[in-house]
Amino acid sequence: LHLEHALEQSQYVVVKKSRRIGWSSTILELFSSWMGKGILIVCSNYSQVGYVKRKLPTNSLNRYWVCTEYNLASETHSCSFDAILFDEASFFNNLCEAHKEATQHLKKDGIFIIASTQGGDSIDYFEKLFKEATYGNSLFYPILLPWFIVFSSQEINKISNNLGRELFEKEYLV
Is the CB of residue 77 less than 8 Å from the CB of residue 52? Predict the structure, then answer.
């Protein structure tokens, strides 16, 4: 995954991704390979919190906090984290404020990953972060994960035919 390379370049990463590419499982696998870390995962809604909690490894030495942006301040009170992940960040009600709040709790050498698909209330802020990173005007390292890096052309045609063109474009195109 490009993420390991990105983390060698910068401790801040912004990921613009397509839907349904298995990102959540992949990032949780990466986190589970770390030992003894405090990891904060901030989700866009409560159903996503439940999904992430079910996917967390049970045999890990890491300490995980999983919350939404709405209870971010109470979850992070007097805590500092080795890694912070914002998942589906463009769907946060106020990504800018959540970003400011979480940054205060990142350890000096900690990792901050902001990832999202298209859409949501905070898409403008997310797009700004991604563009600034792309042009080298921020601390963030940009990663673009389009749908075609995951699926073969045969799989793409099958999915497109099954879903219909409009739904396929909504769910898969970056």
Answer: no
Tens digit of pLDDT for each residue in 12-32?
988 888 766 555 656 666 666
Tell me how far CA of residue 71 lies from CA of 60, 90, 101, 111, 123, in angstroms.
24, 17, 11, 21, 21
The CB density around residue 54, as the number of other CB atoms within 10 Å, is 7
**Alpha helices (H) in 22-71, listed in sequence order:** 23-32, 46-55
Enumerate the β-bridge partners of residue 67.
42
Residue 77 is encoded by which pair of tokens?
């009170």
Question: Is residue 98 within 8 Å of 68, Cβ to Cβ?
Answer: no
- Phi, psi (degrees; rounded to nearest 5) at 41: -120, 120
The pTM for the full model equals 0.79
Calculate mean pLDDT across residues 119-138.
Answer: 91
